[in-house]
Amino acid sequence: MTTREECQTLDLEDELAPLRNEFLLNYDEIYLDGNSLGPVSRGVSSHVNDVVDHEWGKQLVRGWNDAGWMAMPTRIGDRIATLIGAHSGEVVVADTLTIALAKLIGGALKLRPDRHVIVTDVDNFHSDLYIAQAMSAYGGRPITVKAVSRGSLDEALNDDVALVMLTHVDFRNGEMLDLKGITEKAHDVGALMLWDFAHSTGAAPLNVEEAKVDFAAGCGYKYLNGGPGAPAYMYVRALWQGVIENPLPGWLGHARPFDFEPEFEPAKGVQSFVTSSPSILALSALDGALDVFDQTSMNAIRAKSLHLTDLFMELVEAKLPATFEIVTPREYAHRGSQVSMRHDESYGIIQALIERGVIGDFRAPDIARFGFTPLYLRFVDVYDAVEILADVMSSEAHRDPKFATRNAVT
Amino acid sequence: MTTREECQTLDLEDELAPLRNEFLLNYDEIYLDGNSLGPVSRGVSSHVNDVVDHEWGKQLVRGWNDAGWMAMPTRIGDRIATLIGAHSGEVVVADTLTIALAKLIGGALKLRPDRHVIVTDVDNFHSDLYIAQAMSAYGGRPITVKAVSRGSLDEALNDDVALVMLTHVDFRNGEMLDLKGITEKAHDVGALMLWDFAHSTGAAPLNVEEAKVDFAAGCGYKYLNGGPGAPAYMYVRALWQGVIENPLPGWLGHARPFDFEPEFEPAKGVQSFVTSSPSILALSALDGALDVFDQTSMNAIRAKSLHLTDLFMELVEAKLPATFEIVTPREYAHRGSQVSMRHDESYGIIQALIERGVIGDFRAPDIARFGFTPLYLRFVDVYDAVEILADVMSSEAHRDPKFATRNAVT
To answer: Do A122 and A222 sit in the same domain of this protein?
Structure first.
């Protein structure tokens, strides 16, 4: 079993270790919830202050030109493109994640007008299921959303499928799906492929170009650390640009927004997926949060991520044998950057951990979920977190009556 | 003609004058573009810093509960409700303005399933026209968008009209439409009424309750001063809550978002119009910007607004006779909080004014537009702005060749 001393050595040898200093973290906490909300980084504070005090504060409305606000959705999109293997000009940042998905679903359905089915995962994030269902009313023809289990995906694919829409890393168990293989299968039946990268972006290298992904959307506030409710991004493969239409068009996606023309004519490229003015404060926070990614590579992040989750699982099994059912896959190819464990008392366990400074989260009905962000987590953090978990379990702290009633959130 | 000394006296007697100190303004500028983007206020800086440094910074993911982030869309909505004559629980803040309109249009169309027409104003803000057209594909039946001139509105109303959708104050000429009268006419033919309050909210008192408005949306970044791209708000009359459906549903609008249920069940009230996580930074800036409205009333703001625009028009006509065609209505009932003037050389005039510290904006093809925000503008500002305008015109500064080519933005 790995010792604390060995963890300290791993930290000393860790090339990502200096990046921890870029983040605002509580000294007395181990933050294993960056998969829900990443922490503030130095880049965020400086960018946000700069917008408030200097750009908005001094330039006022001129900021749209002079501070480059108009270009932010595509400029920041280009920064995210480098993290997911996309080209410059294929990614734009705007809206919340579910609205971003709505745009891509609606646009995709129009590209396959003779087909009537959206295939998705019955265990997909529920908001993705809601918006798929809602957008199925948009196509001007009856569309059925078939939400199937992952094992039955192949059977569901046929030439009536317009769109396959999946989340790459499962929010509950952390399972990572086969990006390239599934995309290929969708294409084999003539369907389009839309991926939700909420739990992958910034956590693992993605190569949308190689996998020939048609469309994708991702989250700014998880592994990208862009702040609570940070804007989402949309990826539209170059092939589809000028072909796919944004079903929720607005003036900022117009070819000439300041000509105030009564008819919509889409701007070239992904800009047409911007609808109306996005929050510049929100964009600038995300912009600042991306600075830290310039100092490393997604491959280095992935290698440390797998090491951290390996270590966590090893220690949990060694120190707490037969206590938790680890539902996150062991195979690297199928593992995201989180570890999820099943236990009947997960809610109380998470609450007791939080009280002791180990921040994970509970996902109904019985999952204790821990996210591992290589940018700021140390190997000793993993060691200490498992020690504290073992202490909670042995002291039965999680059975404190105050944890009997589940709180509304987290 | 009003003299500068008289303007100074007006400022001394102005009960709103102290509020100017709440804003960050450039000493050497007269800002007449608050109808495009309001300035930073003290409340904004403190709220945003508090979110970054303490809430997000220290509470991290717990902020959703502990800092009240989950409740922000409706809590801030309640603050805006007091400005538009709505009840608590009828307003929610989320998304950009065009997306907010999309939700209300889509929802409204479902409430009139046997009708096939959306009536709007041919001079409506172009983004409103684009989204009306786009959402007409959503209803599962052929819907026609009839964009008519304001004078022909009555003729366009008949029992095939599902929805009348208008902007209350015209962005070009500043004309204010008859909120109550038009809403009544829409209702007389059984249509629903959706108002865009982008250029009214925070500029003039609105009474949606008295006018029996069904739905409305408004802008956070103009007269509310919530920052570039501040989130929009949606108003849904209590009568329609639980009846109208959000056509772009997401998990934060679910009755039990953290139960992760595969079927969408809307939350009670306007919360169901929140889709997925809104930017907390953007919301907190808007929250802070609303603080200044607690120190006055919409009636006081409106009285000063009319006085400021009266003064501007009086001075322009006195100092620059027969130079501009003022296209903003003189009648108080039909005037918003801006003055728009037509001149063939408006683009150069606005650029020359900006160079001299008077910030207005150009709206194609030939409008020079000046917004008057009573919260921070002085009567002497109006006087001085017109003096500088007179100087531009007499010196022909606007004919400088550098203003010959129109810039992309503003």
So the answer is: yes
